[in-house]
Design a protein that fits this description.
This protein has helices at residues 12-20, 39-47, 102-108, 146-153, 156-179, 183-193, 206-213, 247-262, 276-293; strands at 50-51, 58-59, 62-63, 68-69, 86-91, 113-117, 131-134, 141-142, 198-203, 222-225. By secondary structure, it is of the alpha/beta class. The structure holds zinc ion (ZN). Catalyzes the formation of 3-(3-amino-3-carboxypropyl)uridine (acp3U) at position 20 in the D-loop of several cytoplasmic tRNAs (acp3U(20)).
C-alpha cells in the first residue's frame, strides 16, 4: 500500500501538530482485522478534502457533523455493521467534533448507533434494567458479569410482568437439558443474556467525562469496565494511561468481549469494520510519522 501521507492533512500546520502529539504503539494491533476494501478511502485521500453533500462543509472522508461520507466517498462503498445491541454515544458539547471518533460508529452502524450532545440526553429511568454505561468507576463490573448484575437491577414491576414466562418455562427446559440436548442450554443462556439492550458510551476528554457521569439521569445504571487494552489512538491524551481508549476502540472492544463472553459465540471479525476509518487513518499517520522520522 503506497500512500502519500502529507495530503491527508490539507495544511502543514495540522500535520505538524498531529505528529507532535502522536504516540503510536510499536506493534500494530489493527493489522489482522477483517475489513472491507479501503480502496475508496485511498482514492479519496489522494484527491484531498471534498464537500459534504448535506452541509457543504469541506471534509476528509466523512462529515463529522452530519455523519455522512463526503461526495468522493460513495456511501455504497462504506461497509455497514450490524450490532447485537443499540449504542448511545453522549458527546460533550465542547468536544471538538473533528477529533472525535464517535462519528465512525454512526457512519458504519447507522441503524444501531445514536449520538447525543450533552445535556440533551434520553431519559433512561424506565429501562435501567436493560442498559449499561461503559465507565471505569469504583463499582463497575466486567463485560462477562453483565448478565449477573443486570438481574439485580431489574425493577420489581418488570419482574412481575415477565414472571409467568420465566417461572413456567425454565423448569421444563432445564429438565430436558439434563436429560439430553445441549442445544437448549444455549437457548436458556440466550434468553437471559438478551436482557441487555443498550450500551451507553461517553465521548469526551477524561475531565469532562466526570461531569457527565455525575448527571442525575445516569445514576443507578450498571457501570461496565472494559478489559485492559492499549489504545493506538494518535490523539492520545497527555498524562493519561495508554489504556484510555478512543470511543470507537471502546465500542469495538466492548462488542468483541460481549460476543465471546456473553453471547458465547466464536468471534469471526463481525465488528471489525467498525474500525474501517480508524485503521486507515491510523495507518496514514503512522506512515507520515515514519516519513518525517527518516
Ligand atoms: Zn456535513
Amino acid at each position: 500500500m503506497s500512500l502519500s501521507p502529507p495530503t491527508f492533512f490539507k495544511d502543514g500546520k495540522d500535520c505538524e501538530s498531529e505528529l507532535q502529539n502522536t504516540s503510536l504503539t510499536s506493534e500494530d494491533p489493527l493489522q489482522n482485522l477483517c475489513l472491507a476494501s479501503q480502496e475508496v478511502l485511498q482514492k479519496a485521500q489522494q484527491s484531498g478534502r471534498a464537500k459534504c453533500l448535506k452541509c457543504g462543509g469541506s471534509r476528509m472522508f466523512y462529515c463529522y457533523t452530519c455523519y455522512v461520507p463526503v461526495e468522493t466517498v460513495p456511501i455504497e462503498q462504506i461497509p455497514v455493521v450490524k450490532l447485537p445491541l443499540k449504542i448511545d454515544i453522549i458527546k460533550h458539547p465542547h468536544e471538538t467534533d473533528g477529533k472525535s471518533t464517535a462519528a465512525h460508529a454512526k457512519l458504519l452502524a447507522p441503524e444501531d448507533v445514536n449520538l447525543y450532545t450533552y445535556p440533551c440526553i434520553p431519559e433512561y429511568e424506565e429501562r435501567k434494567h436493560e442498559i449499561v454505561l461503559v465507565f471505569p468507576g469504583p463499582d463497575s463490573v466486567s463485560v462477562e458479569d453483565i448478565s449477573l448484575y443486570l438481574h439485580k437491577h431489574i425493577p420489581s414491576n418488570a419482574l412481575d410482568s415477565s414472571k409467568n414466562d420465566r417461572s413456567d418455562n425454565l423448569p421444563n427446559k432445564r429438565q430436558k437439558v439434563e436429560g439430553e440436548e445441549d442445544r437448549d442450554v444455549g437457548d436458556i443462556n440466550r434468553k437471559d443474556d438478551s436482557l441487555l439492550k443498550k450500551v451507553i458510551f461517553i465521548d469526551s476528554t477524561w475531565n469532562q467525562t466526570h461531569k457527565i457521569i455525575a448527571d442525575e439521569r445516569l445514576q443507578g445504571l450498571l457501570q461496565v469496565e472494559l478489559k485492559t487494552r492499549k489504545t493506538c489512538f494518535w490523539r492520545h491524551q497527555k498524562g493519561k494511561p495508554d489504556t484510555f481508549l478512543s470511543t470507537i476502540e471502546a465500542i469495538y472492544y466492548f462488542l468483541v468481549d460481549y460476543h465471546t463472553a456473553v453471547l458465547k459465540e466464536q468471534y469471526k471479525g463481525q465488528y471489525d469494520n467498525l474500525l474501517f476509518f480508524y485503521s486507515f487513518m491510523y495507518q496514514l499517520i503512522k506512515n507520515a510519522k515514519n516519513t518525517v522520522g527518516k
